[in-house]
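Need tokens for this chain, all 464 residues.
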Amino acid sequence: MKTLRKFQAPLAVVVFLLVLYLVTLKPVFIHNGGVWTRILTHASSVAVVLRDAGLEPEKGRPTSPGGDSPVLWGMTIEVSSGRMIPILIGGETRYADFPEGGNIPLQKLLDQAGVVLEKGDWVFADGAPFSPDQLLNSPPIKIEIRKEIAFQVIADGKTTSCSAPGPTVGEALWQAGIALYPADEVKPSILTSLSSIQQSPIVIEIIRARTISVHVDGKDLSVRTTGKTVGDALARAGLSLAGLDYAVPAEGEPLPADGRISVVRVREEILREQSSIPFERANQPMPDLELDRTQVVQPGAPGIMESIVRVRYEDGVEADRTPEGQQVLLLPQKRIVGYGTKIVVRTAETADGPIEYYRAITVYATSYSPCRLGISSCGYTTYSGKTLQKGMIAMVYSWFSLFRGQGVYVDGYGSASVEDVGAGPNAPYWIDLAYLDDDYIGWHRNTTLYFLTPVPANVPWVLP
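Here are the structure tokens for all 464 residues:
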């Protein structure tokens, strides 16, 4: 009996707890996609009820009541079957149910999410600004509420007060209807977040680019730039000068009033030009070589001179050549010709008998007489002062000065002496044969001139 009483007390507690557990179960009805489910639960919130039932909705598909709502006896939980649109506001994410078929005012979605717009709020659907009364034909990925930020814009010498939500400088300018053009410079940069600018009021400066015309590489380019100088403008336009290139006006000059700039492309190349160096000529006496004969001792050869020239091209056209110096690559070789100084006395048989001579040369012979001098009057006195007669010959002055009075023999004319000066068609290898007017014979042919012995003390080795 005592043993039975011993187990009665704990059993009563278990029974009590079991009854209490069953009595406190709450019936809840879940409506999900047209399907009703009844469950009994001790869960304290709607979210836990759905989780325990294996019906936790996808993220972005809220329930009614919300997931944090307490569980009431016999309550109905509606799980949305439409597409839920996240609405971002003040760091919080809310959701609105976008119905099938669309064509719903944006304001209706805001009302679903309990969003109340305040003054200065901007509504963006997928990054584009929307008015709350605009209709949405298709569900956006997200809706965002941004508060506008006041800022000032300085452009073209004017200051304009604006406000826009941004979040970046570039987006804020676009939202405020302020257009930017290629190459415009914005300070701070367009990627800067408005909220990160530690300035009150926020000031945005726009430096408008200026249109300039650049003639470069044979083309005329129209570019916009904010540069102040020619060099800065070209650099900003991606047309920086390189090497020897130069601009007109010069790089350091301010932009010209007419906005026209020329870029001249410059290159230089070094040319090596070779030219011939003439060789000198010299004569050399040769005692073993007979008079009036020559022999080449050294043939002679031109040298080579290299000139270094710097050639400058501007826009592909040669503009200048500058000598950079010269150097001799090969020295010229002098030409040396030996002349004979050996006198050999010979004899010859002539129509007038044998003669003895030490030099014989071929000359062109003409003839003259006192009244056949080629002048209007007659002349009877030779250059040596003697009276003109047969047996005298004339030579060019250079020969006359060497052979004056020298005894000679002219083949076909006879013995004679050098007594006169003249000028002939084959000078200096020319002689003029003297006649008297009555016995004049005309000469116009080549003949042999013999220089007779005795050999004079000063023999001219080389005839001029």
